[in-house]
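Weekly structure sync, notes
Attendees: PL (lead), two postdocs, one rotation student
Agenda item 3: pending single-chain targets
PL asked that the sequence for the first pending target be pasted directly into the notes so everyone works from the same version. It is reproduced below exactly as submitted, 638 residues in total.
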Amino acid sequence: MSLIHQLLAKHFGYNQFRPLQEDIVRSVMEGHDTLALLPTGGGKSICFQVPALAKDGICLVISPLIALMKDHEEQLKEKGIRAAAIVSGMKKSEVEIVIGNCIYGDYKFLYVSPERLASKYFQEQLIRMPLSMIAVDEAHCISQWGYDFRPPYLEIAKIKELFPTIPIIALTASATREVRDDICQLLNFKKGYKVFTKSFARSNLSYIVRHEDNKYERMMRILNSIPGTSIIYVRSRKKTQDIARWLLSQRIKADYYHAGIDFKIRTEKQKRWMNNETRVIVATNAFGMGINKPDVRSVIHMDLPDDLESYYQEAGRAGRDEKPAYAVVLYNNNDLNEIERKKITNFPEINEIKTVYQALSNYLQIPIETGEGQTYEFDLLQFCTNYKQDPVKTYNCLKILELADYLTLSEALFLPARIKILLKNLDLYAFQVERKEYDPILKVLLRSYGGIFDDYVRINESEIARRLETDKKTVFELLKKLNKLEIIHYLPLTDQPQITFTCNREDIKYLRIQKEYLEDRKNRFVVRADAFKNFISNKQQCRSMMILSYFGEENLIRCGTCDYCRELNKMELNEIEFEDLKNSILTRLEMEATSPHEIVAHIQSISPNKITIVIQWMLENNIIHTEAGGQLVLTKTP
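Predicted structure, written out during the meeting:
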């Protein structure tokens, strides 16, 4: 058995790689810069974790998702693999210890956000690390054609210049051809680089799109006809609660999930769903990233995502066990109008952006020409209440300021409570003798947490309270007092979104927001939005073929299981017959309104029954409709 197969079995419990995984691993092992395009649930992590374990040194992993970074760090530690993550919200002393461990310790993985790469201090320390390779997760973020462009990703090429001999692997689940080309170019891939692309086709996943005025009724019909676990995606936090409560009233075990819920409660909700104690989770797009539940039987979109990339990722969380599953979109005319509205609201005017920047700087109390590199916990709703701002427009202003590289807005960040003892052993003992009121809690800390003198360790205040036979509030106060006495460094739990200023605060008259750049971003958004609108509105093409075509695949065939194909299958017509008949009817109706009887008489080479079936299908899908007098006419698309 080769080394990479030994590592796969030892650390991940698999006897063999999935399709393409071994090719990707061997490409990295041979020193090639590599782009791996694998669909959601395709096992991207193994593609860089296995070669990193096989190589001497440490792998730098760049990821924009804090929660995912921390999940991977914990998963690797559970496997006995030394891994660390540097995330916003960590104190400078914590960061210094992590960096020291990566330079001098036997660590295999260091996870960082792309924003960290711009730090001169981090770059200086990175050069001292024995780097074996660089992995770039969510690599589509480097491309301005990507649906989630992040300017700090452009710093990766500079880091690569510091390590010209080590390979870099870029990974993403969804990228068009323009995005793939951008990734390879902007990461300065060396000559001889490799690109591995797994087909976006999901043969076991049926894509269903329904125009529905009563979405709740259709949702219930779907859940009653498709047994098993389900995810229901909506856009607002309030709607997650409303739908979950309604489902409970219908005797379906449901729960809701969004980023505004306390981390511990979110974790418990997720755990119950993973263990099938909850059947349906109603969630915003905050749910699902990094969660690998193979037996999800349906994903239902009650609201529309912004683009096909986002939809493909969210829908792809169904049926990872390769058994039949369903991805259902329910929409109405209001949803189509919302797509058009976003083309305006997602791109506020420059003066509105400047107003938000000014208010934000005042809210965070940042003087002009200060703030670079500083991170602040940020409550968007509280900010909007204080400054009488519209939350949606404010959020979009912040995203544009992020694109202009003035700040970064992180997801809700969970960091557990951490402590480090600042005294040496003998000095701590002397303190315990002198201040006996602190002796019990210090003894619990010393007995419960190893390495507490050398590193920050995660603590659980509730567990400490249980061992001291007291309450959590008392423990919290004792730890704060010890922190004030400089006996320990205590960092309480955080669970808030954060804003980091990437440069000093500017006077708004010097704020550089280029109108041409905004127009370019808007045009690219419109292209993606229109592609998704066409996906849900188009009733004349296989859904899977539309997705595959969008991602640049060729030589496509019908999936046979989407809503379009299912209707076609009922007609007892082959695809060529169906397309010929449909085109003949369309051609006739483009010239003049015609009755069904006249169409049957006009197409004499095909049986009347087959012609009637196609006419009925076209009527049901609103491609044509009947006017007074029974004449058939073409339906004008919105």
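Discussion points:
- The radius of gyration is 28 Å.
- The chain has five domains: 3-197, 205-331, 341-414+497-525, 417-492, 571-634.
Action: rotation student to compare against the earlier draft before next sync.
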